[in-house]
Write a structure and sequence with these properties.
Layout (H helix, E strand, L loop, with lengths): L2 H6 L3 H27 L4 H22 L12 H24 L2 H8 L2 H11 L7 H18 L8 H24 L5 H23 L5 H27 L2 H4 L6 H13 L5 H36 L1
Helix pairs in contact: 2-4, 2-10, 2-12, 3-4, 3-9, 3-10, 4-5, 4-8, 4-9, 5-8, 5-12, 5-13, 6-7, 6-8, 6-13, 7-13
Length: 307
């Protein structure tokens, strides 16, 4: 990380507030996704407008960046394509889960992403995972079992499976992004994600899309606008504060999912959510903290070696 970027990360309150705003925007987007689904909008059509609306914002960020358009040049296109394939499947499953489940239930299950990501990092990237993080992974899965209650849950089994599938694929995306992050900025990664996914989504929108009333078009516009704002907020928050400071703010998404679920859809979280969500969130926070400790030790070790 450059000294300028590190200096820019000395605004923790700005980072926290920006991340909270991003979670609110994404919560509104998912509410629009669910409303659009109830009005017959196909998931791929929602994805199309989500990506289409984000593209001008991404281009603006690249234009305003220090290097400008030359920064999009990359020799990692195979990884960008892999990230795009996995990313669009992950986004599609997450959107679909929001239409199948109450917002709070789908959001809670999505919190398993850091648990799966840590598991995949150990199994695929061969990262060293100590007993503490293995314990957090195990405890997190216990929380999942409490929420889903296999065989006796009020949560539809198919919807829960879709949500877990979305979390699994999203976790795999984080591994690819971690590799890309060694040479690519987040904005450039998002740019190529849009470039590689929009053509296929355009075809899908042409096949599955149709005429809508003004209200439904408003939902699709909301998906695009608030999805883009959420994406901007997530990216911008990383410029204000370190990951370890802002990641805990992501769990505020459950607050908005619960509020919107009750106010818009009349869906109240079941008891299993109140018991399981704190376990899943606690596991995720502990993993994030251990990642921070591990990164700090590596930084100190690298500094010592350079002396």
């Amino acid at each position: 990380m450059s000294d300028d970027h590190a200096a820019g990360q000395n605004r923790p309150m700005a980072g926290i507030l920006t991340r909270l705003g991003a979670m609110l925007s994404l919560g509104i987007m998912f509410a629009f996704v669910k409303l659009a689904g109830q009005h017959g909008v196909h998931v791929t059509e929602s994805l199309f407008y989500r990506q289409l609306t984000a593209m001008p914002l991404i281009c603006f960020l690249i234009w305003r960046s220090q290097r400008g358009w030359p920064s999009i040049v990359s020799n990692k296109h195979r990884l960008h394509i892999l990230r795009s394939i996995l990313g669009i499947f992950a986004m599609g499953l997450n959107f679909w889960a929001m239409t199948l489940l109450p917002l709070a239930d789908a959001t809670t299950i999505s919190f398993t992403v850091p648990i799966f990501a840590t598991l995949f990092a150990a199994l695929i990237l061969r990262e060293q995972v100590g007993i503490r993080r293995w314990s957090a992974i195990l405890i997190g899965f216990i929380g999942v079992l409490i929420v889903i209650q296999p065989g006796g849950s009020l949560i539809p089994a198919f919807g829960a499976a879709v949500a877990l599938g979305g979390a699994l694929v999203t976790a795999s995306v984080t591994l690819v992004i971690r590799i890309l992050g060694r040479t690519e900025t987040s904005v450039v990664t998002i740019f190529w994600f849009s470039v590689y996914t929009l053509p296929a989504l355009t075809v899908c929108a042409f096949i599955y899309g149709g005429g809508h009333d003004a209200q439904t078009w408003g939902y699709l516009l909301g998906i695009g606008i608030f999805g883009a704002l959420g994406q901007l907020g997530v990216t911008q928050s990383l410029r204000y504060a370190p990951v370890s400071t802002i990641v805990p703010m992501d769990y505020s998404a459950l607050i908005w999912a619960t509020i919107f679920g009750i106010a818009i859809f009349g869906q109240y979280p079941g008891l299993s959510i109140w018991f399981g969500a704190p376990i899943i969130i606690g596991s995720g926070l502990f993993i994030a903290w251990r990642e921070h400790v591990r990164a700090s030790k590596q930084t100190i070790a690298s500094a010592s070696e350079s002396v």
